[in-house]
Task: structure prediction
Amino acid sequence: MLHFSRVKSFVVLAIVLFGMIATSPNFFSKSSVENWPDWIPGRQLVLGLDLQGGVYLLYQVDKDGYRSTRLKALADEVRRALRPAGEANTGYTGLRVRGDKVQVTIRDSAKIDEARRRLQPLVNPLVSSLLSVTGTSAVNEFAIEELDGGTFEFQFTEDGFEERIRGIVSQSIEVIRRRIDELGTTEPSIQREGTDRILVEAPGLDDPERLKELIGTTASLSFNMVDVSMSADQAEQTRIPVGSIILPSVDDAGPPSYLVKEVSILGGEDLVDAQTTFDQQTNEPVVAFTFNTSGGIKFATITERNVGRPFAIVLDDEVISAPVIREPIRGGSGIISGSFTVESANNLAILLRAGALPAKLIINEERTVGPGLGQDSIDAGKIATVIAAIAVVVFMVMTYGLFGVISNIALLANLFLIMGVLSTLGATLTLPGIAGIVLTVGMAVDANVLIYERIREESRQGRSPLNAIDAGYKRALATILDANITTLIAAIILFAIGSGPIKGFAITLAIGIITTVFTAFVFSRFLIAMWVQARRPKTLPI
Amino acid sequence: MRLLRLIPDNTSFQFMRHRKWSFPASALVIVASIAMFFTFGLNLGIDFRGGTLIEIETKDGPANIGEIRSQLSGLGFGDVQVQEFGAPNDVLIRIVQQEGGEQAQQDVVVKVRETFGETVNYRRVEVVGPRVSGELTTKGALAVLAALAAVLCYIWFRFEWQFAVGAILALVHDVILTIGMFSIVQLEFNLSSIAAILTIVGYSLNDTVVVYDRIRENLRRYKKKPLSEVLDLSINQTLSRTALTSITTLLALVALFIFGGPVIQSFTFAMIWGVIVGTYSSIFVAAPILITMGMTPGARASDKSDAAEADKQAS
Result:
């Protein structure tokens, strides 16, 4: 056990040296490390949000909301499919959304075949983004069931719905990224979590309100004509006309709500640009927008036909303003005025440029750590690590003398290796991660204690120093492995199931266990072998 | 230099005799812990119960806890806990989960920010909605169970089945006692607590495995000795190591508890308790339970290949 070949010695020293080199960038400031030549490793520990401060936001797609919007749209598609332009209608009745299904009944039983042919395309095959086991890569969004009495029933297929949600998450991530890029201040990470969640992490940001506003707004813009047959108040008291809806207004200048036509004349998808400017007369902030060519033509035709009538600019089911069309707008651009501040106008411009989210996102979890707390935690972690290390080092020297010194050198090498591996892997160091390191400091000496106690025992039984050391290492190995593998199992499970800071703890614990086995069993043995070679001891100082 | 000997060489404590009281004592404490759990329950943090946690720092002078409490109770959030946290101008506010789904939780933060305005710094804001808290609870319980199962498999693979059962009983003992401790001192039980429990599982097992390894070795060496004597011998032989490792680990943990800041204090507290309980259980639960489970000399002798190997090693 005490013989180390040249190659072996070289490998052992190289590993320890790697730990020291890989750790070293952490002792310098970030800016000075950036100026280092490329051949020196310059990776620093990535600090978790709980240490450097920042915002953690977990969003989930509003599945129920999406389901009902999509079913309403499907009902429209059914209506159009049964009344194709330029062909005879298929007579139907009772077209409605019922729970999570869309139902329609064909009047004339002779026309069932025709209806089936017209409705069949609506199952809407989607190309699956997942590799399918069965080999078919397309799933239908809807399944059609034919009930007695000529009734057709549409329902989401499970795979189809999931595929839709998956698509919505991808699209939403794109939109969120565009929106946040517009802010330009932070470099957040935006990633998918599971099937229907999005995780946004913005380090260094301590007020999440603006970020939340930017992400949480669906920003679905539409232009709807105002129903002038009666006011919203009248409609509420008497009866809302068919095809119109009442929407609340956020414009302080106008009435609290408007009666508008349900079908919009133009949507936000035709916008190509939006900028904040100032109204030349009132000097208030407004948002100037530009349509693409087809949107511009549509807008021109509509405004031409409706001069003198008001139309509503609707954002997420709220009326921003409802101006009267004074003259046809032919340039393909216009202005949204409302009760804006500069910031809210800026936000709206960003949202319009980045496009609408395909579905509403609901915030599930929010964690914000201010920079002050982060720094406090780093300081506390440093102090605790140093004090823990000193206590353990002193204790080991008191108990084992020279061998204690050796285990302390091993402990130091262990700390370097943990930090070095963490830096190289680009792993994130969290506060519980620091706790993991401190715990490793305490437990790392365990392997050495096991070995030394064994050497003491063997030595008491009358073995020569060399023999005792050899037997001590040999016999302790199985125990050390068993003891550390079991802890490693716990760490791996923590890593697999935990999230955020807990994951950070599991990583440091797992790395710590592996480096501990190396430093305590291999590196300390190497040091002792060197000592034995140099001194040829007759008795053991243990 | 004279070296420190915490435990003298060649001790011969008769630990097995103490199982007469250690078993009933452990059983009693377990029952008490379970009773505590069901009467007082756990002080669940927002990770598992949902709700809002806000840590603020007053800008001018020490915080007036009473005033903050009355300011917040006017907002109608129901149960609001306000406490000093680590420093006199540092205040931790916990607000229970509000009715009305995810958005309702968000409104809480907005209202609190409106209430305090610019008079405070927000050191930490955590909002956990009902969906996530439910999932975290399931995941946490799953993590502890999965760890126990994985460890059971490993020990079973490496040792005889009695050892596996003994180790798991010792672990369950430690986990239950730790949860009991959380219940008694009403320490907040959150995600870090799950991490603490799993680390305790790892530590306690580490301790148990060291003792078991020695028991296995001695069982092969001394075939004629009564089991209880072999167990006593093994524990005595490893006693010095058990004490040393517990002490270095506790030294590190105490340093973390005192200097590591208030955020991880509950984590460290649980760990300290776990190390003590884990050390106790390796000696007084895991080892003597082998006798109770009928590890017989006959069962040992049947393992001939092991015996031969032990002979070879002993010679």
